[in-house]
Design a protein that fits this description.
Length: about 325
Amino acid sequence: MRVVLLEPLGVAKEKILSMAEKIEGLGHDFIMYDDRPDTQDELVRRAADADVVILSNLPFPDEAINQCPNLKLISVAFTGIDHIGLEACKERDIAVKNAAGYSTPSVAELTFGLIISVLRNIVECHAAVKAGRTGQGLLGFDLAGKTLGIVGTGAIGLKVAEIGRAFGCRLLAYSRTHKDEAEKLGVKYVSLDELLTESDIVSLHVPLNEHTRGLISREKIALMKPGSILINTARGPIIDSQALADALNEGKLAGAGIDVFETEPPIAADHPLLNAKNVVLTPHIAYATREALERRAEIAFNNVLSFFKKFNSFLTK
């Protein structure tokens, strides 16, 4: 089979080639590209003859997938798969595997980086020192003793709960599935409305799907506790960004920490959160640590090897 790495994975070329040796050792071809395709035509050119493609967050829509007649597996070196044309994959029985768990500590740690940055005015404090000013007017808040509301208790949500407990937070959660592990950490499951009305900090850790798109709407933001903060390291479309900006500018919320947007950065110059008050923005980098990028590459390649093993087993039956 022909395996194509469509874009760089952010790790050393030597490491990629080392992992590719296992694929080639099984008699398969491996092709890699060290840049990201800048057009869909180029994407299709690279993938057209592939049986397996490996990518990270490169959009691979239905129309591109349908121009790749041999495709059997898309190995996604990323947690989310909302950038993949899943309808085409379903229609053609193309397997899609993600790199679940690779960024769990990384995202959880940035979540608290954003929380503390907002609570302690770290961005404003940095600017004050650079401008020769004092800390006058930059009074912050403790994290200890605050109620932390976690929306989604998958692996990342559970890690956030674990760290939140270490900081001395009271823990609430809303999730479609209740986890014993969460309750052992002291998490109390409540409705989304109750979480929003009681939490000092609301942190989002759910995938983007038909149930979560627009989940934090203008109506839900209106339920949030006055002076609370909202953190999003999940997916941008989960929040109504204009409603969040309005709540910040009106002083309803004390602040927000946002790593994800409706589109990948750079975001539009007129995006409502760019000029909102008391917001810390990062360019979708919660997952981006050296350790995480190596973990995701290893998972993506192992998913390919597992696929070959199952495929060969099927052929020999």
